[in-house]
């Protein structure tokens, strides 16, 4: 009888551990933008070389939610604060030179697209852009961004594995800017971050 009780306790313990792993929203929750193309996608598809681990897991740029009041620290926004993806924070690409950009036009209705490898209950998708005159020679900070998103897409439920939504790009921009996309998860403490370089 004692042996049976120990076995039951072990099963309960394993089940509890499994539930905690599932509910923590760790390695199973993933996504990145490919319209406009994000830095992690350029690393994954080989356009940018010497990116390190991000080339294998562009979907894993996950950090604390609540941006801009909370979230990753300044200088670590593009990596979501994850040291293994620090190459994404550099103002220049790891193999030298400027990050590739997507050409856009101010005021145009643009279709943003995320590729997800896990569909999680979602609060919203938000898009921020750098200010005119932002400092392009350092890792992205809140001071470089307009902290009111130019597009917010509320979402209730689990999105499809490819999700697109449209919205107008800001006017009054020229030259190189960075768009920070934030996908906020409803049932964990995290969000996914993606930096895309664009040219107006």
Annotate the secondary structure layout.
Blueprint: H1 2-23, E1 31-35, H2 39-44, E2 62-64, E3 102-103, E4 109-116, E5 122-130, E6 145-157, E7 162-168, E8 176-185, E9 190-199
Parallel strand pairs: 3-9
Antiparallel strand pairs: 1-4, 2-9, 4-7, 5-6, 5-8, 8-9
InterPro entries: Cellulose/chitin-bd_N, GlcNAc_Chitin_IntDeg, Ig_E-set
Subcellular location: Secreted
Protein name: Chitin-binding protein
How does this structure look, described?
By secondary structure, this protein is an alpha+beta fold. It has 2 helices and 9 strands; from the N terminus they run H-E-H-E-E-E-E-E-E-E-E. The strands form 2 sheets. Strands 2, 3, 5, 6, 8 and 9 form a 6-stranded mixed beta sheet that branches. Strand 8 (176-185) and strand 9 form a beta hairpin. The radius of gyration is 19 Å and the shape is globular.
Radius of gyration, rounded? 19 Å
Low-confidence stretches: 2-29
* Arithmetic mean of pLDDT: 88
Give the structural class.
alpha+beta
The named CATH superfamily? chitin-binding protein cbp21
**Count of individual domains:** 1
The total beta strand count reads 9
Number of helices: 2
Q: How are helices and strands ordered from N to C?
A: HEHEEEEEEEE
The description of the largest β-sheet is:
6 strands, mixed
Highest CATH level, the class: Mainly Beta
Helix content: 10-25%
Q: How do you describe this structure in short?
A:
The chain has helices at residues 2-23, 39-44, and strands at 31-35, 62-64, 102-103, 109-116, 122-130, 145-157, 162-168, 176-185, 190-199.
